[in-house]
């Protein structure tokens, strides 16, 4: 999509309100870092690379909001804002990666004016780099896709999950730009329906052929050979190749392996966490309303117990390849991922 999901304009942050899609393409404008934190928490902006840039712009707003008269006072205000922004969503590593990049740039400056300028410049660079990185991921991954492929994707790892172009959907865009005809099967992705609301919206917008299926139809579609590849994004990838992504990714990967369908993950290097083990990572648990209601309509009995994890972990042996801007990692991931960073 040529529209940007998030943008810095006249000392404010403009973003698409993704909770209103697909019915209304509306933009919201924020001037306070706490508004950005609420927007991340409430999924007005979502997707690992997009919340990285939102966090960076949140710090930019915090720098402008600060009344500090000393550089230490300003850094202190920024550290507090960073905590507020970091506390919004725990699973995607891109958010803390972006916040750290901006804070490191700030800490190199010697006066208040330079800190403010440097923070905004760094956040804008993260936003611009996101697009070029996604295009590089797209170029790398497009070679894995053939004319007339039917590709299943889950959640939204597209332009709306990034500043623009997308990771998994960027690969599809790139293959299409090479003249390959690709059809996409988008899982609905309950409970928030990022697949039917967002992936279907942006692919239709770009004239890419897409069908939406209920999550419960994935086995049927694979079993009946109605799809020949799967590609998803990621919120965090460990050095072992364990992939944290939208709830439902794990079962999709198991189904794909059972049906001998290649299962790819596309993500930038900023999604890799080389320091932690699977058990160290917090899986975000979201509000039970997301499961017991559709819109204002109750779809479950009052006070029923609910388990609503937002992400799951796909082990490396289920993954055919991890597509990044620096190349494609394959099993054994411990070695191939290390090479990407070398
Ligand atoms: O809860 P969400 O909508 O933020 O979850 C998004 C995903 O799981 C995406 O697949 C992931 O962030 C990769 S986006 C390029």
In short:
Helices cover 41% and strands 18% of the residues.
What general outline do the C-alpha atoms trace?
globular
Helix and strand run: EEEHHHHHEHEHEHEEEHEEHEEEEEH
Main beta sheet strand tally, sense and closure: 7 strands, mixed
Placed side by side, the strands forming the largest sheet appear as: 6-5-4-7-10-15-16
Number of strands: 16
Radius of gyration: 20 Å
**Estimated share of beta-strand residues:** 15-25%
Q: Residue-averaged pLDDT, rounded?
A: 97
Alpha-beta classification: alpha/beta
What can you see in these coordinates?
- With 342 residues, this protein is an alpha/beta fold.
- The chain has two domains: 6-135, translation initiation factor eif-2b, domain 1 (Four Helix Bundle (Hemerythrin (Met), subunit A)); 141-341, Translation initiation factor eif-2b, domain 2 (Rossmann fold, 3-Layer(aba) Sandwich), CATH 3.40.50.10470.
- It contains eleven helices and 16 strands.
- The strands form four sheets. The chain has a seven-stranded mixed β-sheet, with helices on both faces. The protein has a four-stranded mixed β-sheet with strand order 11-8-9-14, covered by helices on one side. A three-stranded antiparallel β-sheet has the order 1-2-3, with helices on one face.
- β8 and β9 form a beta hairpin.
- α2 (48-65) packs antiparallel against α3 (71-86), α2 (48-65) runs antiparallel to α5 and α3 (71-86) runs antiparallel to α4.
- The two termini are 33 Å apart.
- 48% of the residues are buried.
- The mean pLDDT is 97.
- It binds 5-S-methyl-1-O-phosphono-5-thio-D-ribulose.
- 5-S-methyl-1-O-phosphono-5-thio-D-ribulose is lined by residues 46-49, 92, 155, 157, 161-162, 167, 194, 232-235, 245-246, 310.
């Amino acid at each position: 999509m040529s529209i940007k999901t998030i943008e810095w304009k006249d000392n404010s942050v403009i973003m698409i309100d993704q909770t209103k899609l697909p019915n209304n393409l509306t933009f919201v404008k924020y001037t306070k870092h706490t508004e950005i934190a609420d927007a991340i928490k409430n999924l007005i902006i979502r997707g690992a690379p997009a919340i990285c840039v939102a966090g960076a712009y949140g710090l930019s707003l915090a720098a402008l909001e600060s009344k500090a008269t000393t550089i230490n006072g300003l850094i202190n205000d920024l550290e507090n804002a960073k905590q507020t922004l970091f506390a919004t969503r725990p699973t995607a590593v891109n958010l803390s990666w972006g916040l750290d990049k901006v804070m490191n740039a700030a800490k190199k400056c010697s006066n208040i004016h330079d800190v403010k300028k440097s923070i905004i410049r760094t956040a804008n660079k993260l936003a611009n780099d996101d697009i070029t990185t996604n295009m590089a991921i797209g170029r790398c991954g497009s070679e894995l896709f053939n004319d007339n492929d039917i590709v299943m994707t889950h959640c939204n790892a597209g332009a709306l999950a990034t500043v623009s172009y997308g990771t998994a959907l960027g690969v599809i865009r790139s293959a299409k730009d090479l003249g390959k005809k690709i059809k996409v099967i988008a899982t609905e992705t309950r409970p928030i329906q990022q697949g039917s609301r967002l992936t279907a919206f942006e692919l239709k917008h770009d004239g890419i052929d897409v069908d939406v299926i209920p999550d419960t139809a994935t086995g049927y579609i694979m079993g009946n050979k109605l799809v020949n590849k799967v590609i998803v994004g990621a919120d965090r990838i460990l050095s072992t190749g364990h992939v944290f992504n939208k709830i439902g990714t794990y079962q999709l990967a198991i189904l794909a392996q059972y049906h001998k369908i290649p299962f790819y993950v596309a993500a930038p290097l900023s999604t890799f966490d080389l320091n932690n083990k699977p058990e160290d990572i917090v899986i975000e648990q979201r509000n039970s309303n997301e499961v017991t209601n559709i819109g204002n309509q109750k779809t479950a009995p009052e006070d029923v117990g609910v388990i609503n994890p937002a992400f799951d972990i796909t082990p490396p042996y289920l993954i055919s390849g991890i597509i990044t801007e620096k190349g494609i990692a394959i099993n054994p991931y411990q070695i191939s991922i290390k090479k990407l960073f070398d």
